Amino acid sequence: MEYETDGESDASTCISEADFSFEDDGNMSDDDYPSYDSATCRERTYLVFESCLLHLFSHTCSNCNRPVQYTLNTIGSMLQVKVYCGFCEDEWTWNSQPYLNDCTPNGNVLIAFSIIFSRSFLSKVLRLFAIMNCACISEATFYSRQMKYLRQAVSNVWKEHQNSMLTVLQVEKKPLILGGDGRCDSPGFSTKNGSYTFLEIEHNVVLNIELVQSNEVSGSTNMEKECFMRGMKIFEVYDLPIKMLVTDRHKQLGKYIREDLPQIDHKFDVWHIAKSFRKKVKKLAKRKGCEEVGSWIKRMVNHLYWAAMSSEDGDPEMILEKWLSLRRHIHNKHHGHGTKYKKCAHGRLRKRRWLKYRYSLYPVGLEPVVD
Predict the structure, then answer these.
(1) What confidence tens digit (pLDDT) does each residue in 169-182 have?
(2) Rounded to whole angstroms, how far apart are CA atoms 1 and 177?
(3) Confidence (pTM)
(4) Tell me: the pLDDT tens digits for 342-356?
(5) Which residue in 118, 122, 153, 156 sits closest to 139, CA to CA?
(6) Are 235 and 317 within one domain?
(7) Is residue 160 part of a domain?
């Protein structure tokens, strides 16, 4: 019995993802990509030991009843058994996995898919198979299968989903209420890739995702604005009016919407404001003499959310007065807040430790943070 391994199963091969970059020239149709039988991915798979598997093969030739020779070959995670009779020269081959139409073992593709869809780390999965002494694909195979199958599959599913949702919104003929936010692959000014996501708030579905690299614009700081401008074009193509847009307090984005999209009601996301406010209060609580402010951080953030959510029709004056009432509320003063919001809306409160008015806290401390 001979045992051979294919280079595809060598997990120690180190090849970067950049070596398998995917480029679509725009002229490729669905027929140009290899097809995939979805029925095979529904089959159950098993972990079989080599000694147990060889018991299924006869040790004598079915034609001449003479001893036969075995040759075992692994192609990634697939085992190929070749049986040969030296007397009558009869031979046949058995494969542990079905092939795709381009002679790719099905299990190799499923492993690559599973790593991506489970959000696992490639190195840890390969190490797991290596510890088990189980045949597996190599790092090079993972990236090549990702390039050949996965990217196109994900792209097709996303385009179908996006088109169906935008078509439904076209039929409804209602102005959209969108939420948008950008993200980068790393913090700071050294980021390379950026994305911007558009969420339809009433239906709670993602309508568009735009990607951009820093070398496409004049620096990483301009990526979010460029992503936003590209992403807005699809709503023009489908003729979908936008009533309201909720974003973070990105200065470039705010200026662009104010000057070029004045018909859109631009709002700031409370979560981003609360996140910034929480950081400032935590920083203040670390200062000498301001430690007692730390016990109020959670209540202050909750008050910020409540001020925005409890005001009818988003009345900015009411929201502002409710928010600034925090300056009196933390001192156990619940009346005389403003002209619209004159007193606190809560009922009888349980006993708690109120903050005392100290010059060390105000005005250089908490009041500038609240304002």
Answers:
(1) 999 989 999 999 99
(2) 68
(3) 0.68
(4) 999 888 888 888 887
(5) 122
(6) no
(7) no
